[in-house]
Amino acid sequence: MKAPTVPNTSFVDKEFGGVDQLLEYCKALPKIELHAHLNGSISPESLRQLAEKRLAGTVGEAEAATGALSVLEALEWKDTFDLKDFFPMFKHIYALTNNMAWLVFIVHGVIKDFEDDGVRYLELRSTPRDDASTGLTKELYVQTVLQAISTSPATKISTRLILTIDRRHSPEVAMQIVDLAIRFRDQGVVGVDLAGDPYAADFDCKHALLKAKAAGLKVTIHLGEIENREAESASMLEVRPDRLGHATFLSEQLRAHVYEERIAVEMCMTSNVLCRTVSSYEEHHIKEALELDHPSILCTDDKSIFASPLSCEYALAASTFSMTKQQLFDLSKKSIDAIFANSEEKTRLRGVWDTWAP
Ligand SMILES: CNc1ncnc2c1ncn2[C@@H]1O[C@H](COP(=O)(O)O)[C@@H](O)[C@H]1O
Predict the structure, then answer these.
(1) Counting runs of H as helices and runs of E as strands, what totals does the chain give?
(2) Residue 17 Rama label (left phi>0; alpha psi -120 to 50; beta)
(3) Ligand 1, atom 3, residue with closest C-alpha
(4) Which residue positions does the secretion signal occupy (predicted)?
(5) ipTM of the complex
(6) Strand arrangement of the beta sheet that strand 189-195 belongs to
(7) Of all helices (H) and strands (E), which one includes residue 116?
């Protein structure tokens, strides 16, 4: 997959001096990333490295590596996705990230990639999972990811963890994940997310999400990622989520509710365009949200799959909506309001923005 092309426009020339300078500005700009799925954010180089190490391993491991390499090859020529083929890909990535040592390796790599791209605060999200073949349990998964976050050598970025409930889980597993989030909240877990294949059967995770909220954890929900999910979206909004992922397909009434309640939306433009849930950058619903000054956070979703680092999402927004340097700065600074970490962290981050000079 090639990184998206940022169109040059007369505005880009005038404001930035060209696309290269725009990209440079966006990379240097301090940024907040709030919607990044861990297993979708591993760089292709790290995945290849893992696969190659495992090719030299036992027969089972070699099979896992071959599956992942075929995904990497397929990604190289892909230029769009169908959401229906998208989710099965993770099975192959999971086969490479199913033991503690590999998990630490990928978490360190992903944090470093975000840091190098100018991200100063990151909320990674990931689905706790078991793997009988390696003795991995959901609890060990969370412990290992948290340990990797705390031992990351990256010094310019701070990272928190959101635990993801997958739409394919059962209500019992959803509850287990919330219990893990509560247990590990003092060690860097700040919230819970509902994600996964939006075509998967609807299941009742409302109790689990309400329990998370009652315990003081924050909640974000992938909402309206595909069409005709109005009943589910209305029901999910009753949980009073703190943020929403995508919020692409919403009835007028629900969108008005989101605007009225000022629920921040994690906007993943390239992901939506490549998965064809939005027809073009110009048509993206962030346009209206920006016009209304609705809290909107530019995010990558799965940066290794969509090949678009966060700096590129900022550059695409600038080029598509003719945003000035100051507007990009304000957008990234305002994202601090929507983070799940506490007020001290917000104050610290505002200080970083206030002392930044382009
Ligand atoms: C296209 N946008 C998306 N919509 C919904 N869920 C998505 C997603 N992209 C990724 N995931 C969810 O994140 C998992 C991989 O990371 P973790 O194993 O959790 O680290 C995927 O299995 C899927 O459930």
Answers:
(1) 18, 8
(2) left
(3) 196
(4) none
(5) 0.99
(6) 31-37, 119-126, 158-166, 189-195, 218-223, 243-246, 264-267, 296-298
(7) helix 100-116
User: Given its phi and psi angles, is residue 160 left (phi above 0), alpha (psi -120 to 50 degrees) or beta?
Assistant: beta
Instruction: Band the pLDDT of 207: cuts 50, 70, 90.
Output: very high
First to last CA, the chain: 30
- Select from 1, 35, 37 the residue to mutate for testing ligand 1; criterion: most ligand atoms less than 8 Å from CB: 37
From the alpha carbon of 38, which atom of ligand 1 is closest? 20
Residue for token pair 């001096």: 17
Structure tokens given for 195: 């994600």
Ligand 1 atom 2: residue of nearest CA:
301
User: What's the 38 CA to ligand 1 centre distance in angstroms?
Assistant: 8
Distance CA 112, CA 116 (A): 6
Mean pLDDT computed over 25-48: 96
- Taking CA atoms, 278 is separated from 75, 95, 248, in Å, by 20, 31, 8
| Contact in structure between 193 and 266 (CB atoms under 8 Å) | no
Domains and CATH numbers, the chain: 10-42+105-353 (3.20.20.140), 43-96 (no CATH)
Q: How many CB atoms lie within 10 A of CB 45?
A: 12
Taking the whole predicted model, whether its pTM rises above 0.90 is answered as yes
- What's the confidence (pLDDT) of residue 77? 66
| Closest to 33 measured CA to CA, from 357, 285, 292, 271 | 271
Angle CA(255)–CA(258)–CA(261) in degrees, nearest 5? 145
Average pLDDT over residues 148-154: 98
Q: Which positions are annotated as active-site residues?
A: 225
List 297's β-bridge partners, or say none. 266
The pLDDT assigned to 78 comes to: 74
Is 26:312 a contact under the CB 8 Å cutoff?
yes
